[in-house]
Amino acid sequence: MSRRAGRCDWPPRRREARGQVLLVGAIVLAFIVLALVPVFNGVFAPDSAGSNEPPEVGEGPATLRAEQQSAARELAVRIGHGDTHASPAPVVDELSSALANYTRVSAESAAEQRGWFVETRLNTSSPGTVNGTRVVQREQARLVLPNGDARTWQMFPPGQRTELGWFVLRLDTSNLSDEDPLVVEVGNAPTDAMTVEIEKQENSRGVELSVGGAFETTDEPVVCDATNGQVVLDLYRGRSADRDCAFPALRGVEGPVDIEVQNPPGTPDERAVGVYDLVVRDGSKITADVDSCTDASATPTEPCTTPVLWQLSLETTVDGGRATYTTAQNVSVYGGGER
After folding, report:
1. What confidence score (pLDDT) does residue 263 get?
2. Could you give the count of Cα atoms lying within 13 Å of 311 in the half-sphere of its Cβ?
3. CA-CA distance, 319 to 208, in Å (whole number)?
4. CATH architecture of residue range(s) 148-288
5. Where in the sequence of the chain do the CATH 2.60.120 domains occur?
6. In 3D, which of 162, 135, 334, 185 has the Cα closest to residue 257?
7. Where do transmembrane segments lie in this chain (predicted)?
8. For 186, how many CA atoms within 13 A lie in the half-sphere containing its CB?
9. Which CA distances in Å does 306 have to 20, 28, 53, 83, 279?
10. Predicted local confidence at residue 309, as pLDDT
11. CB neighbour list of residue 93: distance below 8 Å, 6 or more residues apart
């Protein structure tokens, strides 16, 4: 009920009702995006916005533009780590649709409230749109070489390297040794390398991580607690998923890099058990033993590949009523984008 000068004005005028619907829609979408922030904000800090903004536009539109670019990154990860695809085209189409829906509601709400309009679009024809490759083992199993039992898996053949932008590993602690660690090594020899050794904490349900490298190491093992016998480690950013522990991050090694996983010695039944999810820029360099996730030969207990978007090319239009500005920007989703 709205009261003005002692009279009842119901139902509200159409413009007010529309503004309320748009505002509610914007709030709902904001909560969806904000729900991703605890997981992704280490990678998706917004780029600096406003330094190249025309002075007539003002701070408000520049801030919204930065928020929309940040939302585009978060949507790209949410879509890229959802369904698997045979080619990048469905990923691009899904992100374009999601971004259009998000920017339409948020931009119309801002236009209703503040008098200016900001809209961000994905430019799929721009060379700034760069594809990447996600390598994922979707169901818990022994971490061994695809289609084999070798305990050391070189993800890339000798001489083949690429950029690393994501590496999350979930381990079953009951299948880890407290003497012989699982080893993950990322390096760009002969310059830099980092080695992460993971083993079960003796007399505990957690794990211990020891990191060695040319420029950053751990003086003492870092203890990461497990939940229900599982521990989730973000090796790329150097922390557990629940942030109860932190350690030197693999992103400290400048790419392009080699990636190698070494299981403890012993029989295949004694190897570490878990799932993992990583993203590299050039998936064509991955060993040929890894199938596409959509191939009939792919199994969820072995790693497979699926396309993601490594870098986005965005176009943002700002309409302040008196003037309209369109700017283009390449925004990295993983890693540091182009080096």
Report:
1. 87
2. 19
3. 54
4. Sandwich (2.60)
5. 148-288
6. 162
7. 21-44
8. 22
9. 40, 30, 37, 9, 9
10. 96
11. none
